[in-house]
Each structure stands twice: as C-alpha cells, then as structure tokens.
Design a protein that fits this description.
Radius of gyration of chain A: 16 Å
Helix content of chain B: 55-70%
Number of helices of chain A: 4
Oligomer: heterodimer
Strand content of chain B: under 5%
CATH superfamily of chain A: Dimeric alpha+beta barrel
Order of helices and strands of chain A: EHHEEEEHHE
Strand order of the largest sheet of chain A: 2-5-1-6
Structural class of chain A: alpha+beta
CATH architecture of chain A: 2-Layer Sandwich
Largest sheet of chain B: none
Order of helices and strands of chain B: HHHHHHHHHHHHHHHHHHHH
Strand content of chain A: 35-45%
CATH topology of chain A: Alpha-Beta Plaits
Helix content of chain A: 25-40%
Largest sheet of chain A: 4 strands, antiparallel
Largest interface: A-B, 13 and 11 residues
Mean pLDDT of chain B: 86
Low-confidence stretches of chain B: 1-5
Mean pLDDT of chain A: 93
CATH class of chain A: Alpha Beta
Number of domains of chain A: 1
Number of helices of chain B: 20
Low-confidence stretches of chain A: none
Structural class of chain B: mainly alpha
Number of strands of chain B: 0
Chain lengths: 115, 423
C-alpha cells in the first residue's frame, strides 16, 4: 500500500538555526531518505520551497480567484513529503515516527487511493 | 398444532441468533482480513443471517450453521464487490475469491485476535475502540451499544461507520503486534474486552440472553487470549477478574429478583468450579512477578471470595490492595472502593473523609456508586437526612431496577425523621 507522509513544520525555525545546526538538520533528512531507499520503501520525496511563495487558486462561477499565499494560514506549514510503499498502516506509522519532521513538527500519514 | 409450529420456529430463531452472535467476529475477521473492509463483510453476513431466518425455520437448521452462513456471506460479498465502482476492482476480487475459496468451510481460521488488535489500534479514536470491538467482534447492534455507552443510537452509528472507514482506508492491519509494542497494545484490547464484560454484567438475573452471552463471550475471548498470549500476566489477571465476578452471578439476586449486596450473598450459591479456575488464573498471573491493574482487581475479588472458606473477609488485605490500585491507576472508582474498605476497618466517619477526597473529581457527580457509598456511610454515622438525600441521587442515577429497589428500601429504612421537610 502506498502512503503519503506530509511534513508540517514551522518554517521560521530554519532561519533561527546556526549553520552547523542547519547542516545537521539537512544531514538527518538525507539519512532518513537513504534509510527509506535501502528498505525499498521510498517511491518519491521532495522538499517544498517556502509557503510564503505559494499561490492559491479557486474558480467560482467561472472566475478564477488568485490568492498570494498558502491555503491554510497556520504556524506549521506543508514543507515536504515522502511517498512510500509499505505493507500497512503500522509500517507507515513506524516510518513516520522516524522522520526528522516528527521531532520539530508533525507528520500526517495518509493512504493513497490506488487508481 | 399451531403452538407446536410456533415453538419450533422459536427454537430455530433462537439457534440462529446464538450462531450469529457466536460466529460473527470469526466470520467478519475471515471475510475482511484481505480487504480490510469490515462494513462490506458485516453487510454480507447480515444478508446471510436474514437468509438463514427465512430458510432455516422451514427446512431446519443446517448441520454446520457457521459454514452455511459463510457460504452465503461470501457469495453476497463477491456480488457486492462486483457491483461497486468506488474503489478496488478486479484485483481485490480475485484476491478475495482466492483467499476465501481455498479454505474448507468447516475449517474457518480464527482471526479474531487480529481483528481485536485492529479495532483497538492506536490510530482509532480511543473512545470508539470498545464499541467498535463489541460490534465487529461480538456482533452487537449500534442501539444496544449506544445505550451502554450513553450515546444516541444515531451518534453511535455514525462513529462506528467512521471507525470502520478508517480501518479500510488507512490500511490498519489485522495482525498481532510484535513484542516491543505488545504491552501497550494489549492493554487497549483488555480494556475493550472488560468493557464488554461489564455490559453483560449489568443484567444480573441473566434474563436478557444477549447480555448474559455477552459476558460469556467476553470470557470466551479472554480465554482465547490466554491461549495465544500465555506469558502475559494481565491477560490471566483479567480472566481471573471476570471469572470471580461471573461465579457470583447466581447469588446476586434473591428468589424474588431483589438485589443482594456482595457482603450478604449466600456463598453456597457461588460457582465453586469457576472460582477455582479464577484462583488458578490469578496464581498463573502472579507467577510472572509483574503487577498490573487487572491482577490487583482480581486479587481484591479473591479476598472477598475468601469468605466462602473462612466466613469472614480480611478488610486489611483488601485495603492494601486498593491502596496499590489507587497508586497505579489514580482511578476515582478505586478510591471510592478504598474508602468503603477503610470504613470497615476504622468506621464510617473515616470512610466519609476518604470519600470527600474524591468528591472534587468531575466524573464523580453523576457516578451512582459514589452516591450509594456516601449514602451508606452517612446512614451508618446516623446523619439520616444527608443519607436520605444521597440515596435519592443514587436512585436517580441507577439504571438497574433491582438495584433501584434495593436503594429505595435502604432509604426507607432511614425512617420518617430523615425525610426532608414537606415530604
């Protein structure tokens, strides 16, 4: 079964970190990604650019409304995702718990509806 | 002649109902283990059950009713998946047909334990785990469960539907957790089983067959757990606790259906064999040297049951067990019982003081045993007006008519002086 792990983090945290801490943070994500690869569980993953640069669209009565900014205005923003392929929710939860984002933000686990 | 036919029909219906209750979880677990679709399995099974009710009375019960139900249910389930457009298609159908096709109907594997762990999974909201287990594993309908959990049937149905959708869509597995996560996950299963037992325990007279069987079914599941997880002391602890309680069932009501409190029960009416089994289970539990909530509660029951042999109860032992239970769980219910044990040793005033310590807990205000305990202790101190008032609240909160009558009797025993002015 495929699961999407979405990572919600406080983006202001990164800027407050020292270069060493940033390096350490990046390294922990790389190690996590490597572990997923080694286990044969990784389908795809990406880090997103800052949510302040997001554009949100909605079409109402044929008119496109464009909003400069992310959909949800909350402190923790979608910062990246991992698409993984594992047997069940227990396995997905166990990977989510090991994700560095679970330490400084939250990780949402959602099953993919196979088409 | 007409009466004979009716009674034959009644017997068939009763058999059908017993089979449905007994086999529900096993058949649901089997039909849903591959797809995770509990709702579809339950729908298919209830159609099979409806078919049984229309066929069995005229043709007689089949030799193996469980296999009969499975055959009909899997046919319905395959029809259902074929006609569904919202999700998995032929792959799932093939997998399902394969899984359920390769198993002989008279040898249905028991996947109930996996189903129990799925229903009590941490990804399922804690408040719905026990009702979910009662419905999916034991086959109770939403209305019955709703009344036990003090929710409207509509609200309960909605929450159950949501929980089943979560199992299916989130891919919650029907499996037994590994060693390191087992203790925590097991506690969730035990709590849910005990909640079902408590529901079956309400109807003391056993006049409601469904309820009595629910207590039996909870014990059945617990025995199954002891076979599958024989090294878990709390599993044995809960089995012991439920057996001690069940053993006293015949003594809980007098011949007129009146409530008999534990201390006044005729010990000759207790089921000696069941008590022995409970003692053995408790010994087995304590052998592991790992104390837990259910072992402590069972040990308290064991101390009460001593009256059978010695004619008296060691309140000293009971008090120290309640001390341990309060320390372990912080439960206000344990504190109430501790206060009652303390009153036996040091008098009702000390008991009332201990009871006052939990009176601030918001859960206590609408909890009948608190008010009944308070009334009893107040009556013993001679504060009959306050006792009358506390009995009044306890009576108002009680659901069981026999207990209600008992409390009314105790209230009347206070005499006319206790009545509030104007009554």
């Amino acid at each position: 079964m495929q699961y999407l792990l979405t990572l919600y983090v406080d983006e202001s945290g990164w800027g407050k970190m020292t270069p060493e801490q940033q390096q350490q943070g990046a390294a922990s994500y790389m190690a996590y990604t490597e572990a997923l690869k080694a286990a044969g569980a990784l389908v795809n993953s990406n880090r997103l650019r800052p949510s302040a640069t997001a554009t949100t669209l909605r079409v109402t009565n044929g008119k496109t409304q464009v909003l400069d900014g992310p959909f949800a205005d909350s402190k923790e923003q979608l910062g990246g995702y991992y698409l993984i392929d594992v047997p069940d929710l227990d396995a997905a939860m166990s990977w989510a718990g090991r994700c560095p984002a679970a330490q400084h933000g939250v990780v949402e686990v959602r099953a993919i509806w196979a088409m | 002649m007409a009466t004979v036919e009716t009674s034959d029909r009644d017997t068939t219906l009763a058999t059908a109902e017993t089979v449905a209750r007994h086999s529900h979880g096993k058949l649901v677990a089997f039909l849903a283990m591959r797809s995770g679709d509990v709702t579809a399995a339950e729908d298919a099974l209830s159609e099979a059950f409806a078919a049984a009710l229309s066929v069995w009375p005229s043709k007689g019960c089949p030799a193996n009713p469980e296999a009969w139900l499975l055959t009909v249910a899997r046919r319905k389930l395959i029809d259902q998946i074929r006609s569904r457009h919202d999700g998995p298609g032929s792959d799932e159908l093939e997998a399902l047909a394969e899984t359920i096709g390769e198993i002989a109907e008279d040898d249905i594997p028991d996947r109930r334990l996996g189903l129990l762990f799925a229903c009590t999974h941490p990804a399922i909201d804690a408040g719905i785990r026990s009702p979910l287990m009662m419905q999916v594993v034991l086959g109770l309908d939403a209305a019955q469960i709703a009344s036990a959990f003090l929710l409207s049937p509509a609200a309960m149905s909605q929450r159950l539907v949501r929980a089943k959708a979560k199992i299916r869509h989130a891919g919650i597995p029907f499996r037994i957790p590994n060693r390191n996560e087992l203790p925590e996950r097991l506690e969730m299963v035990l709590d849910a089983i005990y909640a079902s037992f408590a529901e079956g325990w309400i109807d003391a007279a056993g006049s409601d067959i469904a309820r009595r069987e629910l207590a039996g079914e909870a014990i059945f599941l617990e025995r199954l757990l002891t076979e599958l997880l024989p090294d878990e002391p709390e599993v044995w602890g809960l089995l012991a606790l439920m057996l001690y309680a069940e053993a006293r069932r015949p003594a809980r009501r007098n011949s007129r259906g009146g409530f008999v409190p534990l201390g006044q029960q005729d010990t000759a009416l207790w089921d000696a064999e069941m008590i022995e089994e409970a003692e053995a289970a408790l010994r087995r539990a304590s052998g592991a040297g790992l104390i837990g909530r259910y072992q402590l509660e069972a040990a308290i029951q064991s101390a009460h049951v001593e009256r059978r042999r010695t004619g008296s109860v060691s309140w000293r032992a009971i008090l120290s067990l309640y001390d341990a239970l309060v320390n372990l769980t912080g439960s206000p219910v344990a504190s109430i019982n501790r206060a009652l044990a303390l009153a036996e040793l040091e008098g009702p005033t000390t008991g009332l003081e201990a009871l006052d310590e939990v009176s601030g807990d918001p859960r206590i205000g609408s909890y009948q045993p608190y008010w009944a305990a308070r009334a009893e202790l107040l009556a013993r101190t001679g504060a009959s007006r306050e006792a009358w008032q506390a009995y009044e609240i306890a009576i108002g909160l009680e659901r069981d008519p026999a207990v209600k009558r008992y409390l009314e009797m105790r209230q009347a025993d206070l005499g006319s002086d206790s009545l509030p002015q104007g009554r």
